[in-house]
Predict the structure.
Amino acid sequence: MKPLELLDETITPNGADLKLVRRDSEYIILANGKSLMSSRMHGSEEALATFGCRRARALEQPSVLVGGLGMGFTLRATLDVLPLDAMVVVAELVPAVVEWNRGPLGPLAGHPLKDKRVRVHVGDVAVALRSCPGQFDAVLLDVDNGPAAFTASENAGLYDDRGLALARAALKMGGVLAVWSARENRRFEQRLRYGGFAVEVERVRGRLKKGGPRHVIFLGHKPPLG
């Protein structure tokens, strides 16, 4: 096995050590030395967009927030299912991750940041949610490792009662909150229901039809008026 080649390194605002490395054609982002994501496994991230945008894709001028840029696969899948008049805000906490997607990671997902429908918010996704009440038809969250935070405990605030209320307030009536998770989480499912969402749970493989670990996508529907 060939050794990892270090391409870049940064410290996140939360103090985690983030490295972009490459082995042959595979790109990996490490958080404090542990694999956070790999370019070889992104099927469930694409499924997050497919499930989360099922309603938005049929609307005129839909507005979607993608929380977490990663390697761009969720953003690419979101753009692929939405119409040409859509507006997509992608919120990424770490400036270096945005630059990596404009550089070596860009070709992996077909340079989604170059799409004219995309607006980049460099900063906390909670700030993007708070500043846009009632604006989004869908909010897709793939931050950290899901409701069980991996790189920083501060990320858990997105998934507690206050964070879910923030996401619900940012959605239009009938909007959908879609949350990617590395594992089952019954407590989070109950928290969504307590927060006023109608809940669906989709279970997918990391490489979809090609297998891989099992991941979970939580879908919280904000009931329409009436």
Observations:
- The chain has a mean pLDDT of 91.
- The first strand starts at residue 5 and ends at 11.
- Residues 205 and 214 are 5 Å apart (CA to CA).
